[in-house]
Design goal:
The complex is a heterodimer. Chain A is of the alpha+beta class. Helices cover 24% and strands 35% of the residues of chain A. Chain A folds into 2 domains: 220 residues, 3-Layer(aba) Sandwich (Rossmann fold); 120 residues, OB fold (Dihydrolipoamide Acetyltransferase, E2P). Chain A has a 6-stranded mixed sheet, sandwiched between helices. The longest helix of chain A is centred in the middle third of the chain and has 18 residues. Chain A is elongated. The two termini of chain A are 25 Å apart. In chain B, the strands form 4 sheets. In chain B, strands 6-7-8-3-9-10 form a 6-stranded mixed sheet, with helices on both faces. In chain B, strands 13-17-14-15-16 form a 5-stranded antiparallel sheet, with no helix packed on it. In chain B, 44% of the residues are buried. The mean pLDDT of chain B is 89. The chains are: A alpha+beta, B alpha+beta.
């Protein structure tokens, strides 16, 4: 196992810059997610680390070794794809053993490694089965087995669960994380699914248009998004962004939305009058009849324990996650309050987070 | 727009009884979601209504007409599949116009133009009408695919997981849009999904399907609050309903025959230690982004609830748990007190 270090890594295809100069370090044994929408450059980044794509500039270090110009086969990295490419004419055991056989490993050692991988993945009873008859979850386990047997320095995974249905996907995220906790293998995992990233990763790098916008633990990314893009991308429903204009004074503990005072984390910077965004997570919205900040109920989505209530305000639309037993009538006017310790502020023009007692501002990357 | 019904419909593929004596009625303007895991028979049911499969037994009615033996084209249905099948060489406009230009329909060109423009506006893709379909994002493609079904005004719309290939954000947006469109058009929908959130938020009624049989039909709230069985109870709700042996809460008054206690977040009152019917410990708080799950351990049982942000609990805290009107299931997994 080893640390992976990416320095000023950049990739252009003709005029199109897929990955802007990126820097990050994946610690030894860390589970690191590259998260972002399609086309953000996450897969290109992973393919460069794997050696499937040559960078336009920058360096990749695996442990202390510079592997930037090494071929994929020389990097001692295992790659797991979304479309589990299993050999249909081989059984499970042969599929798992294949990479070892290709390396020329002896029969006894091979058998030992396959048995160990099968034990870790709990697929021992399947070893003699044909892969053709396997469920999609088991096929994915076999694909993982093929990666594990090699005992590589790192695992790279490109949306390995993307082809599974949501229920199985959720079960597999739990399995993958448990597997990681047993193997402690350095892992880089690419996904557009924030739930996968949030539930599995030690740290997440959120990418947008070839740029790493923020790197942090799932909590940090969720509670203290460094940019409007991250705030909007993470969370379901996404963070509410209420538009207002104002001047900010360092030390203040409230902002003014029209005539309403809203308590906020203590401001750490001053800014002249401008358009601002107040970032409020749906679960940080409270109904408070005494509040001067008003909204009109637009609709409610019932989710069982909770409901998502859509509310229109003078500052933009808002979604609130409330207990399902709070009765909401469409068209009704409601008073709104927010949990102050959960609020973010953004400069609308640049999209960067404003420095408060909660936020370190945009200095995350 | 019309209502439709299946009565006593069965379909077998070799040894597998994919659809087992299903009867289902959907009212005009209704939104019925068929919810179940992969292999439960929901897609086969949809294909039977579409006419893509012929039933071995039973009848299918759309409006007043018995369509059981009619080919798909004669049924006046439109369907949308999980994988958008657009014509990549055609523009968005021509993709949307395609169903109207079919020789059997002979729609005049100015009417085609009007309908396509209207539908595009409804789906908010009007700015893209001139684009080639191959140059759209995934969400736009799926909107065009849905638009192709909407340009016609069929008796019923059949949708097979139309949102499942999209990312979470787009899925949430299109969920709201699709529901809005269905209400605006007063359209009748049969919608197949394994996603409980889609079923709960969009459907007027949910049909829960298991092993080719409909096990319960009802409004989302009804299914969630009064499930007929353990199986149905575990279909809806995140985190999943906790199922505890009766013995885990000996002090709790339970009806005769109760074997299992079903407890969702709203059935559990969790306080820092005090006198309660059960005691436990906070094991883990899982931050899933949109919600936090509180993992606790009571009498050797793992229990997962939605974390209350005001409860101020942290890992390792000793807690008291009391049950508030939980659900009770008998030894067969049927809910005690459920309507037969």
């Amino acid at each position: 196992m080893a640390e992976i270090k990416v320095e000023q890594l950049r990739k252009a295809f003709g005029d199109f810059v897929a990955v802007q100069a990126s820097d990050f370090v994946v610690g030894d044994g860390e589970f690191f997610c590259l998260l972002g929408p399609s086309g953000c450059g996450k897969t290109t980044t992973l393919r460069m680390i794997a050696g499937l794509e040559l960078p336009s500039s920058g360096r990749i270090l695996l442990g202390s070794e510079d592997v930037t110009f090494k071929r994929a086969a020389e990097r001692d990295i295992a790659f797991v794809f979304q479309f589990f490419a299993l050999y249909p004419h081989m059984n499970v055991r042969q599929n798992i053993a294949f990479p070892l056989k290709a390396q020329g490993m002896g029969r006894a050692e091979r058998a030992k490694r396959v048995a160990e991988a099968a034990r870790i993945l709990q697929i021992e009873p399947l070893l003699e089965r044909s892969v053709a008859g396997l469920s999609s979850g088991d096929r994915q386990r076999v694909a993982l087995g093929r990666a594990i047997v090699r005992n590589p320095k790192a695992f790279l995974m490109d949306e390995p669960l993307g082809a599974l249905d949501s229920e199985l996907r959720h079960a597999m995220t739990g399995e993958l994380r448990a597997l990681h906790d047993r193997l402690h293998a350095t892992t880089i995992y690419v996904t557009h699914d924030q739930l996968e990233a949030m539930s599995m990763a030690d740290r997440v790098a959120v990418m947008n248009r070839g740029v790493v916008e923020q790197i942090g633990t799932p909590r940090e990314i969720y509670d203290r998004p460094a940019s409007v893009f991250v705030a909007d991308f993470i969370g379901s429903p996404a963070m509410n962004l209420l538009t207002f204009s104002g001047r900010l004074e360092a030390g203040a503990t409230e902002v003014h939305l029209g005539g309403a005072k809203v308590a906020a984390p203590r401001l750490r910077e001053s800014l002249p009058e401008r358009e601002l965004l107040l970032g409020v997570r749906p679960e940080a919205v409270l109904i408070d009849e005494a509040s001067p900040l008003r909204g009109a109920v637009f609709g409610a989505e019932y989710l069982g324990t909770t409901q998502i209530v859509a509310i229109t305000t003078d500052f933009g639309p808002l979604r609130a996650r409330l207990p399902a037993d709070v009765a909401m009538r469409v068209g009704e006017s409601v008073g709104l309050a927010f949990r102050p310790e959960k609020l973010s502020l953004f400069d609308k023009a640049s999209g960067r987070a404003i420095h408060t007692a909660l936020h370190q501002g945009a200095a995350h990357v | 727009m019309s209502d439709f019904a299946l009565s006593g419909v069965s379909k077998r593929f070799g040894d597998i009884l994919a659809v087992d004596d299903i009867s289902l009625e959907v009212e005009n303007g209704g939104f019925m979601a068929l919810l179940g895991p992969t292999g439960a028979g929901k897609t086969t049911t949809l294909r039977l209504v579409a006419g893509l499969e012929a039933p071995d037994r039973g009848a299918i009615r759309i409006g007043e007409a018995d369509v059981t033996r009619l080919p798909p084209a004669a049924r006046d249905v439109a369907f949308v599949f999980q994988q958008y099948s657009l014509y990549p060489h055609l523009s968005v406009f021509d993709n949307l116009a395609f169903p109207l230009r079919s020789p059997v329909r002979r729609t005049p060109e100015d009417e085609i133009r009007r309908k396509v423009t209207e539908t595009a506006a409804l789906l908010r893709i009007d700015a893209k009408l001139g684009n080639s379909a191959a140059r759209l994002s995934g969400g736009e493609m799926q909107r065009v695919a849905i638009g192709r079904a909407l340009v016609r005004r069929p008796a019923i719309y059949l949708m097979d997981e139309p949102l499942s290939s999209l990312d979470a954000k787009l899925r949430a947006e299109l969920r709201l849009e699709l529901k809005r469109i269905q209400v605006e058009l007063g359209a009748t929908f049969l919608y197949v999904t394994h996603d409980q959130i889609e079923a709960m938020t969009m459907a007027t009624r949910i049909g829960v399907i298991d092993g080719g049989r409909i096990v319960q039909v009802g409004a989302p709230r009804e299914i969630y609050e009064t499930p007929r069985s353990v199986y149905v109870a575990t279909r809806l709700g995140q985190p999943r309903i906790n199922l505890l042996p009766r013995a885990a809460a000996p002090d709790l008054a339970a009806p005769p025959g109760a074997e299992t206690i079903g407890a969702r977040t709203e059935h559990l009152r969790i306080v820092k230690t005090g006198s309660s019917s059960a005691h436990g410990k906070v094991e883990r708080i899982e931050h899933l982004g949109d919600q936090n799950h509180l993992h606790i351990r009571i009498q050797g049982q793992d229990v997962v609830t939605l974390a209350d942000p005001d409860a101020g609990l942290s890992v390792g805290d000793d807690i008291g748990v009391s049950f508030v009107n939980p659900l009770f299931f008998d030894i067969r997994g049927d809910r005690i007190g459920a309507a037969p």
